[in-house]
Amino acid sequence: MIALEAEMLDELRRMNKLLTSITIGWKRYWLAFGSGVARGLGAALGATVIFTVFIAILSRLDTTPVIGSYVRGVIEFLQNNSTASQRILQHEQTPAATPAPVPSAVPSGR
User: Fold this and answer.
1) What global pTM score does this model have?
2) How far, CA to CA in Å, does 72 sit from each of 11, 40, 56?
3) Which among 78, 71, 76, 73 is positioned nearest to 51, based on CA atoms?
4) What digits encode the pLDDT tens for the residues 3-31?
5) Alpha-carbon torsion 42, 43, 44, 47, what sign?
6) Which of 21, 31, 58, 83 is at a distance of 20 to 30 A from 2, taking alpha carbons?
7) What is the 3-state secondary structure (H, E, C) of the chain?
8) Residues contacting 75, CB < 8 A, separation 6+
9) What are the domain boundaries of the chain?
10) What is the C-alpha to C-alpha distance for residues 9 and 1, in angstroms, rounded to an integer?
11) Smallest Cα–Cα separation from 75: which of 101, 105, 54, 104?
12) What's the pLDDT score for residue 59?
């Protein structure tokens, strides 16, 4: 009976320590931040892998007689959109033209 009580007391202390570490404010925020970052990276990497596999499968189906034209259309669409996004990025990287000088508010001596 005493051994059972000691075991239960140890278990309660362990649970108390766990709950305290979870409920402390800054630890909870860092834990939430870290898990959010991990979820975001996992989603991005997972989508990249799935998209890469999808494109690899589509590129192999390009020579298939039945759906080859449809697959070619999809590949062309993806390539065109990729080119358009590259043009947008290049446009954003070009320096903006310098604005025309603003006339002075001070009247001239005439």
Assistant:
1) 0.40
2) 63, 32, 13
3) 78
4) 888 888 899 999 888 887 777 777 778 88
5) positive
6) 21
7) CHHHHHHHHHHHHHHHHHHHHHHCHHHHHHHHHHHHHHHHHHHHHHHHHHHHHHHHHHHHHCCCCCCHHHHHHHHHHHHHHHHHHHHHHHHHHCCCCCCCCCCCCCCCCC
8) 55, 58, 59, 62
9) 17-91
10) 12
11) 54
12) 72
Handedness of CA 31, 33, 37, 39 (dihedral sign): positive
- What's the CA gap between 62 and 103, in Å, rounded? 61
Tokens 């239960």 locate to 8
* Residue position matching structure tokens 């925020």: 29
Residue 59 tokens read as 């590129």
